[in-house]
Amino acid sequence: MDVERETDIFDVTIIGGGPVGLFSAFYCGMRELKTKVIESAAELGGKVAFYPDKVLHDIGGVAAVTGAGLIGQVVRQGTMFGPDIVLGQRVEGLRRREDGIFELVCAGGETHWTRTVILAIGNGVFVPRKLEQPGAERFEGVNLHYSVDSLDRFRDRNVLISGGGNSAIDWANTIEPIAAKLTVVHRRTQFAGHESGVTKLLNSSAAVMTPYWLKEVHGDGGRVRRAIVEQTETGETFEMEVDEVLVNHGIRGDLGGLANWGLAFEEERIVVDARMETNIPGIFAAGDVTSHPGKLKLIAGGFMEGPMAVNSAKAYLDPDRKVEQIYSTHHEKLIAMRR
Ligand SMILES: Cc1cc2nc3c(=O)[nH]c(=O)nc-3n(C[C@H](O)[C@H](O)[C@H](O)COP(=O)(O)OP(=O)(O)OC[C@H]3O[C@@H](n4cnc5c(N)ncnc54)[C@H](O)[C@@H]3O)c2cc1C
């Protein structure tokens, strides 16, 4: 879409559908702001989606909640006022029109129009840690994988999995019954995954090599044919034939194009003032991504910063009106929803 209609312009666009982005969306609803949330992943929840079974005890007023339980609650709360939710789009570019409207451009070319932006992007988009071997990327998507798109490709194959966390262990236990042969290499002697998963793996037919790391992959015709693994203590190397390689070395955050918007950063965090304002007027930030004196990198801290960013966006949009304190207990729409 090249030309937007007035109805396509939002008061606030929140980038990031983690707990802080979702709570901010709720608070935007409280402030009657037309709101959109853009999340690059296919699901809402942010980092919390990586620990669904862990129990959190440090959310104020909530004695204990699992990660999955918290996501359920923040999704319910964040969607109460019906914001537009866009999933699977990664915001990369920023343009500003003469009338002050921001154009947010996504990696797939989609454009979103907004009067203000709240960045609730955590550490950025999660991307897998890849092999550092130069040239290894030529095998990607053929038989070198960083995620599993189809289990069937491992059926009756000679599979190598590198990694020792929950994800690697889970995939190893899933693939082991269908693979012709499975080898798991991990650079430490101890696995970091859940005990039950590790026990299951160690009792399976998989060949488990620790402490070894996947040093190199070699092949021809775009396919990996051989892998070289190295004993991390002795340096002894071992070469093996492989049909499929799955690398599960964890994830890292990637700010992508947002790093070039002209925002002020401090150790990869966006510098904000006491009102959650960034150095670009109309752009605010909240949650893990912010840097300010007294920063508390907890969900509870982000839950305070989100409403502060929303109040600042409201004041920016309507500078002549004082942003009054509001309580959810007194909110007409919420009272009506409860009836
Ligand atoms: C194992 C583990 C345990 C933890 N335990 C606790 C705990 O007990 N208590 C606690 O308070 N905290 C805990 N944390 C930290 C907590 O998860 C984070 O503080 C919280 O998730 C931050 O929320 P957020 O919304 O700021 O960012 P995130 O949860 O990181 O969400 C950011 C979202 O933005 C999206 N995004 C990023 N860039 C873009 C883009 N360009 N376009 C579109 N979308 C984008 C990402 O995909 C992501 O979904 C834990 C963290 C881990 C890893």
Automatic annotation (TrEMBL):
The keyword Cytoplasm does not apply. GO terms for molecular function: ferredoxin-NADP+ reductase activity; flavin adenine dinucleotide binding; NADP binding. Homodimer. SUPFAM superfamilies: FAD/NAD(P)-binding domain (SSF51905). It is an enzyme of class 1 (oxidoreductase). Binds 1 FAD per subunit. Gene3D superfamilies: FAD/NAD(P)-binding domain. This is Ferredoxin--NADP reductase. It holds the Pfam family Pyr_redox_2. Keywords: FAD, Flavoprotein, NADP, Oxidoreductase. InterPro entries: FAD/NAD-bd_sf, FAD/NAD-binding_dom, Fd--NADP_Rdtase_type_2, Ferredoxin-NADP_redctase_2. Residues 10-300 form the FAD/NAD(P)-binding domain. Belongs to the ferredoxin--NADP reductase type 2 family. Its cofactor is FAD. FAD binds at E39, K47, Y51, V91, F126, D288, T329. It catalyses: 2 reduced [2Fe-2S]-[ferredoxin] + NADP(+) + H(+) = 2 oxidized [2Fe-2S]-[ferredoxin] + NADPH.
